[in-house]
Amino acid sequence: MQAKFGIIEIPRSIESARENARLAEEHGFDMVGVADSQSLFRELFVTLSVIGGATERVVIGPTVTNPLTRHPAVMASGLASIQEIAGGRAFLGIATGDSAIYNLGERPRGLAGLKEYIQALRRLFAGEHTEFGGKPIHTRWIGGLDQPQVPIYIAAEGPKTLELAGEIADGVFCGMGFSPDVAKVTLDHIRTGAERAGRTLDDIDIWALGRVNVGEDRAALVSEIRMELASTAHHAFRFTQDGKLVPPQFADAIREVQQGYKPSHHEDLGESPNAQLMQDPELLAYMVDRFAVLGTPEECVAQIQRIREAGIHQILFTGFVDDRPGLIENLGRHVFPRCRN
Asked: What is d(CA 100, CA 231) in angstroms, rounded to the nearest whole number?
């Protein structure tokens, strides 16, 4: 299987999002996702429409949105419109919710709510009338379009969410980490869910999701993504650490990061309050080893090859660093060509 690579864009401005998407396509990325956090970043669908008009090849979509801030009819209408703009290149990435809902004082709906939402979306994408929350809804205009339905990806960290993705989703963004033991457990849970629905792993588009930084000064690279690693500790181990292969010596330190995490500063660049939570050098090293591809181009190539040997051949990166264009170019020129096949 050929390797594929994607990158998530935080739309700190519409112009930077457009230019970063163009650059990613130019340098061989296969997917450009857009983060959805209305209280912190530019609006998701406005940004996607601009990116859709500025690119020709990459698939584009939310990475990721949630089932709370948009009614399913609004979500279906927006995504079908992006599908039209992008000529069939749209996808939906969705999870139970993080900074977008926490900054509104809301809480996740849970997996049952996520499943209900996705089931309603599928019917809406088909132009059908359906129900949501006990009320009739429709997006009648979508049914008349000559375009493929938007594929749905679930972003998943825990065992139950991975199994749900295997059961009902077209694809999954696996956020459990990159290490071989984690990859094995991840694939096992997706397979379990797939078998419940009479499917196999071959029926599901599987991507690993994690952090990235490329350069010569390892300490500086790690320091620059501390806020990303704090975000990962806050989100990937939320609700429970059970079944997530957390070494006992890091359990309490991860809980301290979660307790101190500030959603209002989610993925802020620089020496943010969340970056300051990652002061424990042993925890920081563990989070880098498990959740990041980081180092020189040669080291990044070797790490990607290890991920592929573990059975996952597609990787969606964040890379929320100061010099995004430089990171995109570095990956495209010096890393990806050496580990495509």
From this structure: 13
